Amino acid sequence: MSKINIVYGTVGGNTQLVCERVAEVLVSKGHEAALHDARLAKVDEALAGDVLILACPTYGIGEMDDHFEKFLMALDAVDIEGRKCAIIGLGDPKYDKDYHLESAKIIMEFLQKKKAQILFMPLRISKSPLPLIEQGFVDRWAEKISELS
After folding, report:
1. What's the CA gap between 95 and 24, in Å, rounded?
2. H helix and E strand count, the chain
3. pTM summary value
4. Phi-psi region of 82 (alpha: psi -120 to 50; beta: other; left: phi over 0)
5. pLDDT value of residue 128
6. Whose C-alpha in 91, 110, 125, 135 is 20 to 30 A from the C-alpha of 8?
């Protein structure tokens, strides 16, 4: 099975919660999954696997978590062409209803520019992730990533 690294930015903890659930599902499917907080994440460690999942919340008018943005800038300096990747984006329309899931779009455009292989549509979560975790929506997305890894 695959080694999957998940790099996430978080302030309030929702993105971390979703990533922990995704990691649990991936492990239950036989994969090795490692979580990396963007505050401490190192690009070489994040790339030391078969699949890279990038996860970030959106704040304000389409702004990413500062630590995650710094990680993405560091990732821009390396070749990830063909690398299997997936995207998780969270947001809350209380910030800006038109841009509240912008982080998923920004990451998608970044990965496309870098010619990475995007495994599946991004997991986009508006507002609290708890209902989507409880209803199995997050699990089903993670299972799809497991199948494609």
Report:
1. 30
2. 6, 7
3. 0.97
4. left
5. 94
6. 135
Backbone φ and ψ for 113, nearest 5 degrees, come out as: -60, -35
Neighbouring residues of 43: CB distance < 8 A, sequence distance ≥ 6: 71, 74, 75, 77, 78
Q: Which two tokens stand for residue 94?
A: 């209380």
What are residue 6's DSSP bridge partners? Answer: 35, 53
Q: Are 10 and 39 in contact (CB under 8 A)?
A: no
| pLDDT band at residue 10 under the 50/70/90 scheme | very high
- CATH number of the domain located at residue range(s) 3-148 in this protein: 3.40.50.360
Closest CA to 37 of 70, 7, 73: 7
Q: Where are the domains of the chain?
A: 3-148
Residues 6+ apart with CB under 8 A from 136: none
pLDDT digits (tens, 9 = 90+) for 16-50: 999 999 999 999 999 999 999 999 999 999 999 99
- State both tokens at 57: 């919340």
